[in-house]
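Thread: cobalt (II) ion complex, take 2
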Amino acid sequence: MASSFDVRAVQTTVYDGQKPGTSGLRKRVKVFQQEHYTENFIQATLDAVSPDGGAQGTTLVVGGDGRYFLQEAVQKIVKIAAGNKVTKLIIGQHGILSTPAASNLIRKLKADGGILLTASHNPGGPDNDFGIKYNVSNGGPAPESVTNRIYERTKALTTYRLADLPDVDLSAVGTHQFANFTVEIVDSIDEYVALMHRLFDISLIRNFLRARKDSFSVLFDGMHGVTGPYAHRIFVKELGLPETSVMNAQTLPDFGGGHPDPNLTYAHELVERVRRDSVSFGAASDGDGDRNMIISHDWFVTPSDSVAIIAAHAHRLPYFNQGQVKGLARSMPTSAALDRVADRQGLEMYEVPTGWKFFGNLMDAGQLSICGEESFGTGSDHIREKDGLWAILAWLNVIAHISEERGTTVGIRDLMDQHYQSYGRNYFTRYDYEEVDSASANKVMDVLQDHIQSQKLVGQALGCDTAKFTVAQLDNFDYTDPIDGSVSRNQGVRIVFDDSSRIVFRLSGTGSQGATIRLYIDKYEGDASACFLDAQVALKPLIQVALEVSQLTALTGREKPTVIT
Ligand code: VG1
Ligand code: CO
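Output below.
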């Protein structure tokens, strides 16, 4: 029954610091629980949906990664959306949508945008993080022009518009009609799985896994994030793998107390099981399902290599066969392994700042098909977010395809071997110094900025007696979007050496506490026989240079990073 409802303007006061970061507004749950805090940000977001008319008459997708405070946030969005004359909300069942699934729904259902409730890989629970992110009609994260508009609104709000509606039952698929406002609860998984069927040769992968079940094992770790149910459906139901091939698959509001970030530190349970049980193909996803890690008992695939492998074998994937790869791209700190593939294949290569939003324009313009970030993000133009399960299925599809061609089981290590033989290797590592106090982190960046100012290091040979690196370029990365001409400045300090090695420093834009310094090191090795060292060994001299130049240890008191990737 369609029922009418009242709308009232609730008086509010401005909260400072509601500035969206690399990927939306991320804060402690306790911050979002303050009176009017979440409401203010939702109102500001709806005001920014269009430059002048707010969100009136729009259709928006809403969903999140299952973390603590999700349900409350969704109910607030329903009431404020109705209060702002939104026409329709499409919400994932139980409020749940993985980030890639939400991006797909926005595109598929031609919505005007979406509100994604996630702090991605940050821990969840009452004492941890929550996040709100706005995506635009192409399915991708809002560009800076829109996030700046949101931020400006948060600084000027005096009221938000709240409809007097009951809480909506999010547990059942179906439609709720309130006068001219519609809330549709949709299955969270169906559309996403249908998309994967259009992109990959699912029966080829299934047949391969069945035929090689004694020589090729799979283990997926959902890390108690949003992807567990998606992965269970795909791996167990569609690909016929045993139930035991999916671990931590239940989505929990506190991610089981873990840190749902798929890297060697936080996904250690997977890493240990893969090594102990000699698993051929291990994979994990983060809290909201857009990141992925790929590992075997005898190899860890860096995300920079992962996207290069997918691009090098793209012709083996149904979505890209017949040479439909339009261009490749990576974030600036990501290693240049992908550049070598672009070079070989004569494809256009783009280097963008950190954050998936920078890939969207190139994809919309038909100039970019496959891209990646060193932060375990890999994806393509099938949607406008990075996509963890997509990357994992891409790898499985490539492996199944090559194994079938060669009549033998080809593993992760085999693929890497061949790749390094053919292209050489970009050794890569990232050091994260988490929860450094902001003043010290800024001092480190100031030291680097001073080096840029003086340019005195250029031409100098840094390093130890056995490994010298001559500085060729020293700058802070600025990006001009080739499509709309928008400029993003100061996206990371780069020290580039004359052998193309790079040291990059930047501050994280996704943390919720203190500052996180990220240090990235990239070094090319063209001699295939030298491509199988431990990355930490191969990169040690450059890491030393980075620490000396930045005075990081002295300024932060940190002897060691929190996480090494
Ligand atoms: C980090 C990563 C970046 C990624 C972003 C969002 O940002 O470095 O590559 O796009 O997280 O990923 P920062 O500013 O903290 O370095 V997710 O999975 O949080 O949506
Ligand atoms: Co994420």
